[in-house]
Recover the amino acids of this structure.
């Protein structure tokens, strides 16, 4: 099949529609980020929950808050009330940066950059 460049007509309508959809999607993300910032409501999205679970499964094998130096488990990690994890949320104009820090000092980045 030959292709004559003079006959090539790009589908600008479809391109414009895709661009409009992309802009609308970006507007929705910005609005959601602004709303989170406004209400100070923070939650872990499924990707972040899964990333945290994977990290904890590995981290807890060696965390100094869970294991004594002689290899025996610490009975109450984080003290009587527990609570060894600190959640850090940083709303930005393009998405949420999410980190979790263990009280042993190690930290993991849960940010879902694909959602930005
Ligand atoms: Zn730890």
């Amino acid at each position: 099949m030959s292709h004559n460049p003079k006959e090539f007509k790009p589908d600008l309508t479809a391109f414009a529609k895709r661009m409009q959809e992309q802009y609308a999607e970006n507007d929705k993300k910005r609005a959601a980020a602004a709303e989170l910032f406004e209400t100070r409501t923070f939650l872990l999205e499924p990707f972040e929950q899964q990333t945290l679970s994977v990290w904890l499964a590995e981290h807890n094998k060696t965390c100094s808050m869970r294991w004594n130096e002689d290899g025996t488990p610490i009975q109450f990690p984080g003290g009587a009330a527990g609570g060894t994890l600190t959640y850090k949320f940083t709303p930005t104009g393009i998405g949420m940066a999410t980190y979790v820090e263990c009280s042993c000092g190690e930290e993991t980045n849960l940010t879902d950059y694909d959602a930005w």
Remarks:
- Residues 16 and 42 are 35 Å apart (CA to CA).
- The first helix runs from residue 12 to 39.
